[in-house]
Amino acid sequence: MKDNKKGSALLWAIVVVMVLEIVIAASMTIAYSYYNRSVEKNIERQAYLSAKSVVTNVTENILNKNSDYIKLIPDGTNSVTTTINDVVNGKHTFPEALGKLKLLTLSVSTKTVDDVEYVFLTISGTVTYASKTCTISADLKRLVTESNKNWTLIKYYEGSKEVQLPYNIQTGKDTYDSIDTIFTYFKNGDKAAMQEEYKKHGISVTDGLTFNNDKLRIYIYQVLMNGSSPKLNMDEFNLPKSLAGSQLYAHVMFGVVDGEPVCFIYATATESGAVSDWKPILVFDPITQHWYFRVNQWGNNDYLSMAQLNSGTPENRRIIYDNLVSSFVEENIADK
């Protein structure tokens, strides 16, 4: 009996060891599989970030009117493409990418949208990192009549999927895009088209008040924004202490300076869009797609009233406009 028990114990020990070996082998296989997947995902992510970095750099330099990058835009307006491999003529340095810039293309074409003729620019960057290749693109546009320096960013995308922008930047962009048609009416002085828009939505207006900002606000607030001014995500801002703490909402204002129509997307602590206050805490630039805060001449953060931009003499309006624009300087980016 004793010998049988010893033999049985030995058999059980062998079985346990075999089971443990199988479990360990299976665990190692699963762990290795997860590791490989993690490495693949990391490579894919690095290729994506590298491509996005290159395209963002080129795009922002064009939006900021950097002449070295403006000259990369192909001449003409009808399906023209410029292709640049690696570093352009040894003069253009792109952000350090973990992968190698495989291809950069800039293509232009013309298209008519709502009877307005635009030039569209597509910037595409392809980066290879290890075994992964990724292409990120950016679309920009300008009026056919505008200079080759006056581009506005439409979107970034990968294939058919739009690259997600931070909520506040997307909100600023959407707000600006939503008023594109009526701002065109404003720029063209097309009162009949604007009055027709008012009429569609039951808003009464006299000829002299067609482009009055209080009337426009009612239309923008009730129709375009469905009765609710866009609420910004305060966690996405990195604001000075003097500006932090308040909940901010996006608003719109039109004005004319030196005969040139201008439009502001700005943020205040007032939610109502019917007749809001005119004191911007932040201003959104649809060209660079950033929110900016203001620093005044004493180095303090505050707001500057826009109430006089539509009143007073042209000289006063120019002073107000210049003070407003120069006070929301590029270094004071509010986005994190």
Task: Walk me through the structure.
Keywords: Membrane, Transmembrane, Transmembrane helix. The chain crosses the membrane at residues 9-35. Residues 86-92 and 95-99 have low confidence and may be disordered. The protein has seven helices and ten strands. The chain is elongated. 27% of the residues are buried. The protein folds into two domains: 62-164, no CATH class; 168-327, TcpA-like pilin (2-Layer Sandwich). The strands form two sheets. A six-stranded antiparallel β-sheet has the order 1-2-3-4-5-6, with helices on one face. It has a four-stranded antiparallel β-sheet with strand order 7-8-9-10, with helices on both faces. It is of the alpha+beta class.
Please provide a brief summary of the model.
The chain has 336 residues and is an alpha+beta fold. It folds into 2 domains: 62-164, no CATH class; 168-327, 2-Layer Sandwich (TcpA-like pilin), CATH 3.30.1690. It is 37% helix and 24% strand.
